[in-house]
């Protein structure tokens, strides 16, 4: 109401009755808004653990004030910790919401198994026996790459674009959905999401576990140990094979023999409307080129395009092309193109896929990875 008093004091000769009524209404509205803002500020402070303000400290304990303003996760249950280091001589304190100053008994690591299967590792967690509710610092999660999004009365956690977990709002605080607290002796160097071997197996297109183990051995991946006899149900469902034939002698020069085969993507069509893939594999180097097609009739045009590219890059000529009787190369223009360029077409006999086993195996590897990812994602 100070603005109204100033107007009445200095501008009362210029103010009419209507102006006075308008000013009174404006001042009343401003006062109501100020009350609402102050009420929100008071309620929000109840959810914050603060360090002591400067008026509670003298010069001798100013260093303690700075120390107590660190960001920390806080837990009240000693049995929750998987690793624990006691704190002696009251080295660290927490300033509670009721103005009490309580010491931390120790610090260590806590593993939280979220409801969606991910395990969240919290390091350097303070053990404060007097705390009533365990607290997770959003700022600390953000520092280790966890993205936190607040949506209405929910909180959603993601990392590297992958869903991690969520929580809900309860009495002014957001509560994480945790299925259990893991007790053990697992060791980690920083707070992070413990990725399982199954997660990386799925991310890499359900590749063989042997390759995943090699990547872990060289430090490219990090996950807990697993059984060597581990089986993937998705791989069992999507991959079937028979015993391979004995290999024959490989070609002795680049482009001496090219293997080619057409693969059908079946029910799944790419975003560009492609439903087939065709591979070209050099027998000597096993270098593979993959193209996507809308129709089988495009195979001849794709080969002509590939021939021009690979011969220009290697300064060599394709001498033989081994194909099956799938019909993708059954056209007079393509046959004439092969004769003009001196390319020998080796067409394998019917029902003997092993004769073109290089292309068949490469296409099978690609389709196995595609099918496995489709099955795991729930796509029909």
From TrEMBL:
Keywords recorded for this protein, A-Z: Hydrolase, Protease
Domain Integrase catalytic: from-to ranges: 243-380
Signal peptide stretch: none
GO terms (BP aspect): DNA integration; proteolysis
Listed InterPro entries: GAG-pre-integrase_dom (IPR025724), Integrase_cat-core (IPR001584), PolX-like_BBD (IPR054722), Retrotran_Ty1/copia-like (IPR039537), RNaseH-like_sf (IPR012337), RNaseH_sf (IPR036397)
Keyword field contains Hydrolase: yes
Gene Ontology molecular functions: nucleic acid binding; peptidase activity
Cell membrane in keyword set: no
Name this protein carries in UniProt: PREDICTED: retrotransposon
């Amino acid at each position: 109401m100070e603005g109204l008093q100033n107007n009445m004091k200095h501008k009362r000769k210029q103010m009419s009755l209507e102006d006075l009524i308008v000013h009174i209404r404006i001042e009343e509205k401003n006062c109501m808004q100020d009350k609402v803002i102050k009420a929100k500020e008071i309620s929000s402070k109840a959810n914050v653990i603060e360090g002591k303000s400067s008026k509670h400290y003298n010069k001798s304990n100013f260093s303690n004030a700075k120390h107590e303003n660190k960001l920390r996760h806080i837990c009240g249950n000693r049995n929750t910790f998987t690793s624990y280091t006691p704190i002696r001589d009251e080295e660290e304190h927490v300033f509670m919401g009721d103005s009490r100053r309580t010491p931390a008994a120790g610090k260590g690591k806590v593993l939280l198994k979220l409801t969606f299967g991910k395990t969240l590792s919290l390091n350097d967690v303070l053990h404060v026996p007097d705390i009533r509710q365990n607290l997770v610092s959003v700022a600390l999660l953000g520092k280790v790459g966890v993205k936190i999004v607040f949506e209405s009365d929910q909180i959603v956690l993601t990392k590297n674009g992958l869903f991690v977990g969520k929580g809900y709002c309860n009495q002014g605080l957001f509560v994480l959905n945790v299925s259990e607290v893991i007790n053990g002796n697992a060791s980690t160097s920083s707070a992070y999401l413990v990725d399982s071997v199954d997660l990386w197996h799925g991310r890499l297109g359900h590749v063989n576990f042997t390759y995943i183990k090699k990547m872990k051995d060289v430090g490219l991946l990090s996950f807990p140990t697993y059984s060597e006899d581990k089986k993937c149900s998705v791989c069992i469902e999507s991959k079937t094979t028979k015993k391979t034939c004995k290999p024959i002698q490989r070609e002795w020069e680049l482009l001496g023999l090219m293997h080619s085969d057409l693969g059908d993507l079946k029910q799944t069509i790419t975003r560009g409307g492609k439903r087939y893939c065709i591979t070209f594999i050099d027998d000597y180097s096993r270098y593979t080129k993959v193209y996507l097609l809308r129709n089988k009739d495009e195979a001849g045009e794709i080969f002509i395009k590939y021939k021009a590219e690979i011969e220009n890059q290697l300064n060599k000529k394709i001498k033989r092309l081994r194909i099956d009787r799938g019909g993708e190369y059954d056209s007079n223009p393509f046959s004439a193109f092969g004769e003009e360029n001196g390319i020998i077409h080796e067409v394998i006999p019917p029902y003997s896929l092993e004769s073109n086993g290089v292309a068949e195996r490469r296409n099978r590897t690609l389709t196995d990875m595609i099918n496995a990812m489709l099955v795991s994602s729930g796509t029909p």
